[in-house]
Amino acid sequence: MRSVDASLPVETIVSGKFRRYHNIPVWKQLLQFRTIVLPNIIDTAKIVVGTLQSLLKLILWRPDVIFTKGGYVCLPVGVAARILGIPLVIHDSDTHAGLTNTILAKWAVAIATGAPLEYYDYPASRAHYTGVPLDPALRPVSEAKQHEAKSKLGIAADRPFVVITGGGLGAKVINDAVVASSSNITEHADILLLTGKSHFEEVSKAIGDERPTALRLEPFLAVQDLYVAFTAADVVVGRAGATTLLEVAALAKPTILIPNAQLTGGHQLTNAARYEEKGAVVVLDDATVEENPSVLVQTIDAILRSPEQKDHLSQAIRQFARPDAAHEVAALILASKRA
After folding, report:
1. CB atoms < 10 A from the CB of 155, how many?
2. Cα–Cα distance between 249 and 204 in angstroms, integer?
3. Could you tell me if 238 and 258 are in contact, meaning their C-beta atoms sit under 8 angstroms apart?
4. b (16+ CB within 10 A) / e for 129-139
5. pLDDT tens per residue, range 33-55
6. Rg (CA), the chain
7. pLDDT digits over 288-321, tens only?
8. How far apart are CA 62 and CA 273, in angstroms?
9. 255: three-class secondary structure by DSSP
10. 194, 220 in Cβ contact below 8 A?
11. Domain match, 84 and 157 both
């Protein structure tokens, strides 16, 4: 969770993504020309341009190996690597392969995964379960360290603390649920809601001046502040993004997931299901929380009132942590470079 090294050179290319929506039938998507079909046509052209840009840069740089993380911007780079015969190593954080990695896996000399290999269809000879590289500071902490983190936030050591986040951009469904139950949700715990920058003013106005003192609002937190908040937390509530999941797994935090059902390929639903089947998280349906915000309050209270469930969730989610992931991925990259 450390900030990016400012000394690292950064180059950009043009790229585009293929819009697919998990909860909309394909035929309906094809009828939405201006919002789906036309942007996909434009972005296909961007991928071609990005591939040409990548070819030029890679010819100039002449790298020994290329590492990509699976986002749509990786596709032009991976295609260029294939054309130029440069070894390609890919990494998949989610518990199922995204479109870019599905394409690039055919050419990759090595494939690293964030979850056990049983969740993927990658060739066993080239796939390696490494986990997701995280800051080495992310480790389960002692009760004393948790109390120290709470003290930094001004929370009493014996007061339960819950961090609720919708990710970097925030999540309206989660924000609305907290607003609707703002008085009840703080009855037994201090709450930190990370609204997302674009939602902060709206949420602040919706709660108004009667906001309970135990409810804190922040648009987002800097990396180190987020680490302190997660360390202090007794329960974390959030979406089911792969990196956030592995961060709370590394810290062994009891976690409630409200996966976004609308994202491409339903990858958050898949992530949440993989953790839920191992008894590592409690999963709430997005639509259910939207219709009945009290479900979130009841679920938080149930965990806080049950030391046995808290301990079970903490131990179960910890099995997904891979503290040596960064070293394993680095070794895989170095072993794959061309002579």
Report:
1. 19
2. 30
3. yes
4. bbbbbbeeebe
5. 777 788 878 988 999 999 999 99
6. 21
7. 999 999 999 999 999 999 999 999 999 999 999 9
8. 42
9. strand
10. yes
11. no
